[in-house]
UniProtKB/TrEMBL annotation:
Cofactor(s) listed: FAD
Superkingdom of source: Eukaryota
Subcellular location, record wording: Cytoplasm
Family: Belongs to the flavin monoamine oxidase family.
One Pfam family cited in the UniProt record for this chain: Amino_oxidase
Domain Amine oxidase: 15-494
Protein's name according to its UniProt entry: Amine oxidase domain-containing protein
Length: 503
């Protein structure tokens, strides 16, 4: 007798979706009838290795934050993706001795740079250790700024002029803001006061080096996708509506097939016993914005998501982080340095546009490369995504000039546009003030809640499972979090069918 295999549809071919599919397939290729539905024209999602000016670059995920125990590192090593065949982005690791230049072009004096850098490092250590002082927070921003004020008060020295409109305190502010802007890049929070300080102590990295992947992050993705039978991954298929069965009858109409039906952009339908949704938190947020979100081409749910899940999606933060690469024209000036930028708090060089003023650095993608990289967050990222390339290049020239690099000529640029891309609507998640790590757990909870075990007759269990970086309590915002979340949801199904504990 041929028995029908349970049908599992995974929405999204990012690392969470592909990790889930890989785990389901490799556990037993005959256990499930599997498909991966991806709206975009490529796999990888927020992992996207590309080329620019003859260099390999990463438009999205770039770093493995700690190698020891990290599954992304283990895969990259196993498939020899860490080999150095040609230079690659961030091959020098995090620069150990960048130069910090103040707006106007002077290198920031070590006597100011060092104490502020030490202060910032000790504050980050405090957050990591969880040993926060009583009354700290609720936002990360106020915690950091109060510490700067305390540092100044303890010094009890008058504010001295450094010439022009720079004083010692203005320079300290500028260096401190540069550090905060690095943190904004790491977390995606536009305003650090919107980041929950207490929850930040739950975020974890693996021990070991921070490295990038020599042959490109996308190699990890290609490896995960390599073993599926042809047709498993379906590109260019956008899910518009998720119809599911919230109870055993009554409130929601029982679908003819399913119990879950995915209605796609072209009105075709994929029915499944289980759907693993891996779309970004930005896409989930947009799905809540209007009852009929799908009339705008966004993802919709019928019935709508229950309030516990909607509230968690609303409360958590999801910001925009973008990368901008620029190619320098060849010239006589020699290597571009690893340059951190300390912008004057009141603006000093009028020509530098506002949208450049919170980028922490401009540096080569590796020592000696003519391709430079700078990062944008929040409002500045949104503005940069909207601008023409010519306007971006003139803003870059004003900035380079304002930092003493006036002889450098930018030939062309390329940039990411994660915020305005409807398939992502942002870059990664953070725990906002008013939410907590528990909200990440709530997003991860399968629907219907309690499944058939909640006494509501026969709502089939495990219809909608949720994976993706915003569903991992300690590794949210990262590739490792997304990977682990995919494995978690695959294991949930495997355990349900094989009645074994696979963790
Ligand atoms: C600029 C940037 C830098 C980063 N740097 C790092 C880093 O250095 N290290 C690190 O660990 N992480 C980094 N990250 C984060 C990391 O890239 C993500 O956390 C991770 O890739 C998310 O994977 P995911 O599978 O959860 O989601 P995604 O990659 O977003 O996958 C979801 C997929 O769903 C698809 N989709 C969306 N809507 C629909 C729909 N309606 N129907 C069908 N498919 C749909 C999307 O096209 C996408 O392919 C960075 C991210 C960005 C943007």
């Amino acid at each position: 007798m041929v028995t029908k295999k349970p049908r599992v549809a995974i929405v999204g071919a990012g690392i969470a979706g592909l990790a889930a599919a890989h785990r389901l397939h490799t556990t037993n290729p005959d256990l499930f009838d599997l498909c991966v539905i991806e709206a975009g024209d490529r796999i990888g999602g927020r992992i996207h290795t590309s080329e620019f000016a003859g260099e390999r670059i990463e438009m999205g995920a770039t770093w493995i934050h700690g190698t020891r125990g990290c599954p992304i590192y283990d895969i990259a090593e196993k498939i020899n993706a860490l080999d150095h065949l040609r230079p690659y982005e961030s091959m020098d690791g995090l620069p150990t001795d960048p130069i910090t230049v103040a707006e106007g072009g002077a290198v920031v004096d070590f006597s100011i740079l060092k104490p502020i850098s030490d202060l910032y490092t000790s504050l980050m250590d405090t957050v990591e250790s969880g040993a926060l002082p009583a009354g700290a927070g609720p936002g990360v921003g106020s915690f950091l700024r109060r510490a700067l004020e305390t540092f100044r008060a303890s010094r009890q020295a008058p504010d001295l002029s450094l010439g022009g409109d720079w004083t010692v305190e203005a320079m300290e502010d500028a260096v401190f803001a540069m550090k905060e802007n690095v943190f904004r890049v790491h977390t995606s929070a536009d305003d650090l006061d919107d980041m929950d300080l207490a929850s930040e102590t739950e975020y974890r990295e693996f021990p070991g080096e921070h490295i990038s992947i020599a042959k490109g992050y996308s190699r990890v993705i290609e490896h995960l996708a390599a073993e599926f039978p042809p047709g498993t991954i379906q590109l260019g298929r956008k899910v518009r509506l998720v119809e599911w069965c919230s109870d055993g009858g009554g409130a929601s109409p029982a679908p003819k097939e399913g119990p879950v039906r995915l209605v796609l952009d072209d009105r075709s339908v994929v029915s499944a016993d289980h759907v693993i949704l891996t779309v970004s938190l930005g896409v989930l947020k947009a799905s809540l914005e209007e009852e009929d979100a799908n009339s705008k081409g966004w993802l919709g749910f019928n019935p709508g998501l229950p309030s516990f899940k909607r509230d968690a999606i609303e409360r958590l933060g999801f910001g925009v982080v973008d990368k901008l690469f620029m190619e320098l024209a060849s010239g006589e000036e020699g290597e571009f340095p690893y340059m951190e930028m300390a912008f004057h708090p009141g603006g000093h060089v009028a020509k530098i546009p506002w949208w450049m003023r919170r980028s922490p650095s401009i540096w080569p993608i590796y020592g000696g490369s003519r391709v430079l990289l700078t990062w944008f967050v929040g409002k500045e990222a949104a503005e940069m995504e909207r601008m023409t390339e010519d306007d971006i290049i003139s803003g870059l020239h004003a900035t380079l000039e304002g930092f003493g690099a006036h002889t450098r000529v930018v030939k062309r640029v390329t940039r990411s546009t994660w915020g305005s891309d409807p398939l992502f609507m942002g870059s990664y998640s953070y725990v906002a003030v008013g939410s907590s790590g528990h909200d990440l757990d709530l997003i991860a909870e399968p629907l219907p809640r309690g499944g058939a075990h909640d006494g509501t007759a026969a709502a089939p269990p495990l219809q909608l499972l949720f994976a993706g970086e915003a569903t991992h309590r300690t590794y949210y915002s990262t590739t490792r979090g997304a990977y682990f979340s995919g494995i978690r949801e695959a294991n949930r199904l495997i355990e349900a069918y094989l009645n074994v504990d696979v963790n």
